[in-house]
Structures are given as C-alpha cells and as structure tokens.
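so my prof wants the structure for this chain in the tokens format not the other one, which i didnt know existed until like an hour ago. anyway here's the sequence
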Amino acid sequence: MAAIVKETQSIKQAVLLINGLDTTKFPRLLSRILQKLHLKDEHSFNEEEREKLQAALSLEKYELRLVLETVSFILEQAAYYNVKPTALQQQLENIHLNQEKAEAFSQAWTNMGQDFIEKLRQNTFAPKRLEKIGWCFNLEMGQSLQAKMKSPHAVLELGITSEDSENTENIFVEFNHGELLDFYNKLETIQAQLDSLT
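here's what i got, hopefully its the right format
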C-alpha cells in the first residue's frame, strides 16, 4: 500500500512533537479529535480548551496547532484510504512515530474509525442538493421562414435545495437531441464510477 502520509518537513516536526507528548494523555486527544472531525464548521477544541490543552501538553501555541492539524490530517487520510488499524500503525511507524503513539492511533482507529467514516459519508460536501426532477417535451413544428421544420426539445426541471434553506429553487435546462444524448452519456459515466466504488 502506498504511503497515506508523506514525510514532509512539517510532518517531521509534528512527529517530533507528538512523540514528546504524555502517552497517557494522547489517546484522549485522539478520541476527542475523532469525535468532532466530521463536523464542517466546528473545531475539535474551542479557544479556551486550546489554551488549557496547550498548558497540559506543555506546547507553544503554534506547536499545538501543528499537532492538532497533523493528527486531523492523518485521521482524514486514514478515512479517505479506508486503512486498517494495523496498516495505519505500520504507516505511522514508517514516518518515525514512536510505537506507543502509533499504537494509540491504531487503537483509536479500531474503536472509532468506522463510525467516523460513516459520519463522513453522511455529510454533504456540496452546498446544494437535488431534491426532485421533472421534465417536459416541446416540439417546434415551424417558423415563419421554415414551414416544415421539426425541432424537438426536452426541458428538465431540477429542484435544488440549499443546506441552510428549506425552499426549493427550480432550474430549467433545455436540451436538443444531441445535447440530451451527451448529458445522458455523462450521467452513465458518473453512475459507472459510483458503482465501481461501492
């Protein structure tokens, strides 16, 4: 398996800081981050909690930020690649995280990883969601210059809702035969890619 975390300069610095953390406090830190990481607009710790955490872990403000961001990044990568706990531990040991900290990651991932992945799946990443689809067919039989013209058009009505609103916005899209066929083929490609992931 390819490395889920590349050993960049900031990762190396964060690993040194994480290795220096109290082994008894680190699992609680991981657990708290995993509980809140799926929430889009909320940090794992508020400002007051960060100050207490900074003192409890004996870190400077920028060091704490680096540790929290790195731990969050590692957990997000583990979710993205759906890494097994033992593989996660091995990957972390490969970037020189000490065994106790790597085991703490592995244990937290064993206990909460699948729940975290499921919460991520339930999140909507797009600000708008398709709620309904309607359609109608229009056939233009002629114009003043072309009496025997037939021009079929399909009109799709897409009902879109925003996360922060209950109101449905209707979007109308008109297609001729060629455009509708192209749209259909793109949807088929998207469906095939989704099917391959499940």
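also thought this was worth mentioning. Residues 69 and 146 are 66 Å apart (CA to CA).
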